[in-house]
Design a protein that fits this description.
With 366 residues, this protein is α+β, with helices and mostly antiparallel strands. The chain has nine helices and 13 strands. The strands form three sheets. Strands 2, 3, 4, 5, 7, 8 and 9 form a seven-stranded antiparallel sheet that branches. A four-stranded antiparallel sheet has the order 6-1-13-12, with no helix packed on it. The longest helix is centred in the N-terminal third of the chain and has 22 residues.
Length: 366
Amino acid sequence: MPDVKVVWTGMECNVRQEAEDEIFGTVQLIAGMTPQAPVTFPDSGTLLFGPPGQRIFNAQRLLYSGPAQDISVSAALVERDSGDAEQGKAAVAQAVSAAASAAIASFTGGVGGAAKPLVDLLAGALVEFVADDVLGIGDDVYNPSAAFIPKERLLDASSRRQTRQRPDDPRTLQFTDKVEVRGIDFAGDLGVYTLYLDVQPSVTPGGGGTPGMDDGVGTPTLSRGSQGAAVKKLQRLLNTHVPDLQPLDVDGDFGSVTDGRVREYQRRVEIAEDGVVGPQTWGMLTGGERAQEDAAGTPTLSNGSHGPAVRKLQRLLNAHVPDLQALAVDGVFGPVTERHVREFQSRLAIAVDGVVGPQTWGALTR
């Protein structure tokens, strides 16, 4: 059976309840009849949404990796007003886990049938937390929501991938599926948030970079002048891996703009900048990049450092400090990355020196 990865790529504030919304919550995936560990966000504090440039949050959190099977993804959000965010996040995560277990226990026909009772049970659990004053008095709990994605839909994900971009936020999100969450506060104001999911082929063992799921396209060598489905696949991958630049048109035409983007990507991952998409470039795009970052560990970094460990740092900073202009994940530790490091250190009340050592890495990865 083909393997897939399901990544929660991020969240968009479509309609905010207040001038500025402080949001936290939990996302959980059920694969078959097995609940995965809930993902609570953000790692600390709350996410601020509202002003221009603060309407999209890049999450990039892995929800599932394994055989393709029916899945359900649920989301529960809270707009914080006065409560303790960390206590609230723990309460919501507990509610989500309990609702998932109860939904599975009540239905033996598969996760598709469990999606509706899952939402009902989750709504009831959140109401109980509000009644017990676990959350703050003024905290607004959004109506939970869930999306059911059958195995067949997972298997055709490559043909469904899209890019979400707003005119008032520089961030972009790649997605194949989404979950919309709505809520009305005590004043009657509507809030709408969309969580974006990206179903991705897994890399086959051996690191060859060929997707474990046969999408019928493969990874042929491409260069300027190439056309067709493989170029579209390349353009989607480049939009995912270089999200800080204007998204490419997914038109299947390997022209000068795609050539420039390929060279920029090759530069960032420190491979030959020749504009040719061969085994090495495909391998990095389809899993090798993250494997390289994982293998880089957590060395001490500062202004002037470069390489995969810096890319990992930049991804983590974008996730932890989403209200700042997103960093280019280019592997170059320059003045902009240093400013983000210092801002993160300041918010966590650790030594503000711009040096990423054990303490800063620990705060970023815990």
